[in-house]
Amino acid sequence: MPSTPEYVGQLRTAALRVTRPRVAVLDAVHRNPHADTDTIFGVVRTALPEVSRQAVYDVLHALTDAGLIRRIQPAGSVARYESRVGDNHHHLVCRSCGAIADVDCAVGAAPCLTASEPHGFAVDEAEVVYWGLCPGCSPPSAPRPRP
């Protein structure tokens, strides 16, 4: 987990001005993988009670544009943010509770998959979402008979 000096370095490397809200949002995203905007706002607000919801939205947008965080939005879900960027990993999503877990590339390196017909596109990313039930939402397995 990066520390405040590392967040400052990330912001400077991305040519973004270092502000308390930006550092607080980076920290919130790192500490709360796949968190939605409301969760991030709540975490930031505990550290910076004066920060507005719009300021958090603006920071999330700037950090996403700079490539410091990634925005994902599985079908039927609100936008979520994560600090794991640059590796084109995929996600598992629970159909019941909405839990999200990271999954490494299905095949090789980014874009991890090859389109059967790219129609002239220069494909650099593939977004894969696996759907199912997490262990907490899965029905208990039936006991197996003993041999």
What does this entry look like structurally?
This protein has 147 residues and is of the alpha+beta class. It has helices spanning 4-13, 20-31, 37-47, 53-65, and strands at residues 35-36, 70-72, 80-82, 90-94, 100-103, 129-132. A three-stranded antiparallel sheet has the order 1-3-2. Helix 1 packs across helix 2, helix 2 crosses helix 3 and helix 2 crosses helix 4 (53-65).
Question: What is the topology?
Answer:
Elements: H1 4-13, H2 20-31, E1 35-36, H3 37-47, H4 53-65, E2 70-72, E3 80-82, E4 90-94, E5 100-103, E6 129-132
Parallel strand pairs: 4-6
Antiparallel strand pairs: 1-3, 2-3, 4-5
In short:
The chain is of the alpha+beta class. It has helices at 4-13, 20-31, 37-47, 53-65, and strands spanning 35-36, 70-72, 80-82, 90-94, 100-103, 129-132.
Label this structure with key terms.
single chain; 147 residues; alpha+beta; three-stranded antiparallel sheet; three-stranded mixed sheet; 4 helices; 31% helix; globular
Name the helix and strand elements from N-terminus to C-terminus, one letter apiece: HHEHHEEEEE
What is the beta-strand fraction?
5-15%
State the major sheet. Answer: 3 strands, antiparallel
- Percent helix: 25-40%
Radius of gyration: 18 Å
The total strand number stands at 6
Order of strands, widest sheet = 1-3-2
- Helix count from the secondary structure assignment: 4
Low-confidence stretches: none
Helix/strand class? alpha+beta
Look at the structure and give the mean pLDDT.
Answer: 89
Our measurement of the CA-to-CA distance between the termini, rounded to an integer number of angstroms, reads 48 Å
> Oligomer, anyone?
single chain
* Basic shape: globular
